[in-house]
Fold these 3 entries.
Entry 1:
Amino acid sequence: MIVIGSDHGGYKLKEEIKKYLDEKEIKYIDKGTFSEESVDYPSIAKEVAKEVSTKKADVGIVICRSGIGMSIVANKFKGVRCANCYQEQTAKFARMHNNANMLALGADYITTNEAICIVRQFLATEFEGGRHEARVNLISEIEKENMK
């Protein structure tokens, strides 16, 4: 299950990504926003990250103008590894090497086609494990030490 959300700056791109997910018959939950009316991005990122953190969703996608604010908020949640990606290659390695479970996109810096390619790559890539497993485990240990 995928959970998706955007602020007003990412709304149009979110709607295009939803069309792609619908075409591919990929199930998702939309946590908002539902228009281009101004909203505070932390509220949306919180709702999406909460679903991933509690394992109600396997993957989250958040979209704002830059992707930065959304990724900062998402990474405040235990068990969330949100990567802000601007190209397919970074999405691939975010999953393969970092076992990222959330993707942040910056609507002002990528086209709809690029965004769909990034989403497709992110969803298609599996965690490689191996030498990366120990590093992801270190991230989890740091998280346990610092997130109460």
Entry 2:
Amino acid sequence: MDAAATAVPFRFNRFLPYWAVLQTDLGQTLRSWVYRLWLIMMALAAVGYVLFKLGAANAGEYQSVAAQSDDLLRALAIGSLSLISLLAVSGISSERGVIADSVLSRGISRYQYFLAKWHARLAVVLATFVGIAAVVLAAYATLFTASTNGTGANLTFGGAVSAIVLLAAVLGVVVSWGVAIGAITNGTVLGISIFWIVIFGGLATLSRMPSDYPNLKWLMDGLRNVLRGGITSVDVTQFLLASFFLASVGALVGMGIFARKDV
């Protein structure tokens, strides 16, 4: 039998380098001390706060569950920014030698490398935050009943889902710009410094927007109302579209500059 007739032609999967970097970075991120410190910090803060408020409720100091979960979710999101920024910026900026070897040897394109790093960091941060936030709100709905908190949970399922999704969208913008800045700069320390300048500049710009437009200030000031279910689907859609636009702009800017800069 002719060997050439039975040989299976080799087909190269153009997405294989992307998948390889994506899977590798997912594992590296989950094993990093920054991620573990962030996870421990959020878990301890959530457990400690819930137990403290549960003890206060049993002692007769009642407070709306929507108010409690509002305070905790905002604390988890804002308190996580420092470690999330480090996770995002260091994704590419800390691997300059690896980038040079991979790109110059044509093992992977710069676009695939950037997308793999961006998607990996985005998946880890969002999945972790959504998981912790969902557990926190489920604990509130279970533990803080009318018998323990006087007025019941005061928390709707739709409001809880909306709050988690909206906060995750904000973190998605943060991660996207962090990865982009890390790809542009030549060091993690410099990248983090520029990251905070960009974030504070963006916040200052967004604060000038009309108060009725669903921006970050609108979300943070009205998160309690969101948890109660007092938000429309139009507001949620507008906020998600704005967040998607900002995240996409950050990624496109970072990927465009990264594709043209020296490694």
Entry 3:
Amino acid sequence: MKKLFKRIVVAAVTAGVLCSVPLMAACDSAHPEALIKISYDGEIYELNYKLYRNMYPQTVKHFIELADAGFYNNTIIHSYEASYFYGGGYAYNAEGYESSYEVDYEEGELAMRDYFENNSKESEYYDLAMNGVLTPSVYSDYIDGHYVTPALPTVIGEVGDTHKILNGALTGGFGALRMYYSSKDLEADAVVYLDKDNNEDGAILDNYLEHSATSMFSIQTSSSSGSTSYCIFGQLIDTQPLTDLTEAISEGSSIAVSDVPIDQYDVMIDYTNYDDFTVRDIPIIVLSVEITKR
């Protein structure tokens, strides 16, 4: 009986510790899970991910909020390279647009560039921010003697100098789920709270332009450790579906699209307003992103 009582006490204390972790309200798990369904050439590939909220609470929270809002549903993989691909920034045959992926692909580079411009999800992302769907950023600007938090949330709070992760880091590898830390077109003196150590005010202030991320996600298809410019916040539970998908995609052809305008509110490349994409002849469609464990 005493042993049973001790076990109950230990379990209760453990639960209390987990529930006290910042940003893990209501006893949310340390490792939520997400299901990303991708369609390619008539086949559906289901990628099951383990997310690391214990390491990257803000990034995971942001990703879950976008998934819950349906932001990633029916989007295309707009840039496919040998070692990674990007998704989430452009709708696939979005209702209300005249542009069609299949038609524009046949028309060539110029038409595909127009497709990206017409099917950008910039306005939807901005609307989610303005309507309070996304958790506000800790970015603050010093205005009239006090800090003011604007209504444009981004991913924040996990990186230090030169993008070093402050509270642990995943090492990438095949299937790593990541977001790119990019610059934003904001005031040079904009700051972000990074850490509470060794600062009399309870926070270290650093340049916001070095510590922001896009709403787009990237999936690594190489086995390398990845770049420190990325926050890797999820890993595949089973790599076989992604292996099957990349093998199928490799049999197709591609078209290079240069000088694609980058969203004003969701910049994904450092210090530029344009980027070059490589798209496949058959659209790679993100059918849905669903949070299956919270």
